[in-house]
């Protein structure tokens, strides 16, 4: 059976690419490498159910099948290594230099296993640079900064803005990277939300605003899964790149808990094919989702934000501004949001490069109607869908339309709850091909809303 399975390893790689987005750990016998010993274990249990990882069930479905062989094939020859014991693990000393030197030495296609529960103090930056096929299993370990980095300098270049640009973990010009079950703690003392609708304005420090928890820069095939990021001065995660050819591409952030920071929840300046799923993002100092290209070559395309929980946000939930019109096909779906303040515009900085398009806001629910108010605004945007959003709220004293449209085209707004709003739409400028129907306020159809919706909706 072993030799038969060896013969199908190459074919299984193709199956892997179809069924699995990224490689996962396949060291079945936990000896630090993926080889024929692991294959033998898998072979002895092939076709059987009720099995565990140590018996060859690599995808966790309880069965040992061709899909598990495909994972093994994709990881064939991969080694597992851990930081040397000489690197301190109780955060009593700064281990940045030693840790970075070790990370630089890690060969491609390796699994990094951090010591469970370890605390690695880093007052500078740690990064995976020009790496391929690295799986970093944090095992609940922590990367922690106690200072704001003022006593250090940028190890990679002469940086007059240091320590503004001190990120905590970087994934730089790398391919097929996973970061799992890792904690990152920064030195920002602010709790951001103070209760009763009040926020701590000191959470933002312009001189430290780029100290991101994780930065994904010009990298592809990145999965960030089950991380915890707290008390950073910058964004929780920043996704960036240079020209469109080097934007970060095929990136997933999932199953993570992000709370207390100094700038945006997620900052997007150069990324495509991004999925943000099943995360909790709370106590955000500025905007939860900020799509803000900072150059004419930046942009965001094909980004999906779904099944997330967004808590207290000091400014707004969503903003698409900045330079460059390259913001297209953005889906906000099935999220629970405490405050749904939403703004998307092509704007004067981006208009010379063309109009933005494809904003789909579908099936979201307002989590707490007691904090702030909800409104959506679209300016110079084409192809908009706002549908099936529930419990959106405005104060009766200051209520305005649920969605404001200004010079838009191809718009559908239907079956939303715009509680206390006098009307579903506020129209400014020239808006064409607009369909609005079956929108309610406090359970009653708004008087200006078309009922029923036309066929096809």
Please provide a written account of the structure.
- The protein is 11% helix and 37% strand.
- The strands form six sheets. Strands 1-3-6-9-14-17-20-23-26-29-32-35-38 form a 13-stranded parallel beta sheet, with no helix packed on it. An eleven-stranded parallel beta sheet has the order 5-8-13-16-19-22-25-28-31-34-37. It has a ten-stranded parallel beta sheet with strand order 2-4-7-10-15-18-21-24-27-30, with no helix packed on it.
- The longest helix is centred in the N-terminal third of the chain and has 11 residues.
- Helix 2 crosses helix 4.
Bulk shape: globular
Uncertain segments are 15-23
Instruction: Give the overall pLDDT as a whole number.
Output: 91
Strand content: 35-45%
| Percent helix range | 10-25%
Broad structural category: mainly beta
How many separate helices? 6
Strand order of the largest sheet: 1-3-6-9-14-17-20-23-26-29-32-35-38
Oligomer: single chain
- How far apart the termini lie comes to 54 Å
Return Rg in Å. Answer: 24 Å
Total beta strands: 40
Biggest sheet: strands, sense, closure? 13 strands, parallel
In short:
The protein is mainly β.
Q: Which features characterize this protein?
A:
37% strand; 13-stranded parallel sheet; eleven-stranded parallel sheet; mainly beta; 6 helices; 11% helix; single chain; 457 residues
């Amino acid at each position: 059976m072993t030799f038969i399975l060896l013969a199908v390893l190459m074919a299984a790689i193709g199956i892997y690419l179809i069924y699995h987005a990224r490689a996962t750990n396949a060291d079945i016998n936990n000896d630090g490498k993926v080889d024929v010993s692991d294959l033998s274990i898998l072979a002895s249990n092939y076709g059987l159910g009720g099995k565990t990882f140590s018996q060859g069930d690599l995808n966790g479905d309880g069965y040992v099948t061709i899909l598990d062989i495909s994972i093994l094939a994709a990881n064939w020859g991969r080694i597992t290594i851990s930081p040397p014991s000489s690197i301190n693990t109780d955060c009593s000393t700064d281990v940045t230099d030693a840790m970075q030197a070790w990370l630089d030495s890690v060969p491609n296609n390796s699994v990094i296993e951090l010591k469970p529960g370890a605390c690695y103090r880093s007052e500078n930056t740690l990064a995976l640079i020009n790496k391929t096929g690295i799986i970093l299993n944090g095992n609940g370990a922590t990367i922690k900064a106690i200072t704001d980095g003022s006593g250090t300098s940028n190890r990679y270049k002469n940086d007059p803005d240091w320590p503004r640009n001190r990120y905590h973990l970087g994934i730089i010009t790398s391919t097929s990277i996973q970061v799992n079950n890792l904690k990152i703690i920064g030195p920002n003392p602010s709790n951001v939300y103070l209760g009763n609708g009040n926020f701590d304005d000191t959470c933002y420090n312009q001189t430290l605003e780029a100290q991101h928890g994780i930065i994904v820069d010009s990298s592809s095939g990145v999965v960030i899964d089950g991380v915890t990021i707290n008390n950073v001065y910058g964004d929780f995660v920043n996704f960036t790149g240079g020209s469109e050819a080097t934007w970060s591409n095929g990136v997933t952030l999932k199953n993570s808990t992000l709370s207390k920071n100094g700038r945006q929840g997620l900052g997007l300046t150069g990324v495509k094919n991004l999925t943000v799923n099943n995360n909790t993002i709370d106590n955000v100092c500025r905007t939860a989702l900020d799509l803000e290209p900072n150059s004419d070559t930046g942009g965001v395309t094909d980004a999906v934000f779904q099944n997330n929980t967004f808590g207290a946000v000091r400014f707004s939930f969503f903003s698409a501004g900045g330079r460059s019109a390259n913001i297209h096909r953005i889906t906000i779906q099935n999220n629970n949001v405490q405050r749904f303040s939403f703004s998307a515009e092509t704007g004067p900085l981006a208009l010379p490069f063309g109009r933005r398009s494809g904003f789909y806001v579908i099936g979201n629910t307002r989590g707490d109607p007691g904090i702030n108010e909800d409104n959506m605004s679209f300016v110079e945007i084409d192809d908009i869908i706002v549908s099936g959003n529930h419990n959106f709220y405005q104060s009766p004293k200051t209520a305005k339309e649920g969605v404001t449209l200004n010079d838009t085209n191809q718009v559908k707004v239907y079956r939303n709850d715009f509680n206390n709003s006098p009307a579903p739409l506020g129209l400014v400028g020239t808006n064409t091909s607009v369909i609005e129907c079956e929108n309610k306020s406090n359970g009653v159809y708004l008087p200006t809303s078309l009922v029923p919706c036309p066929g096809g909706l």
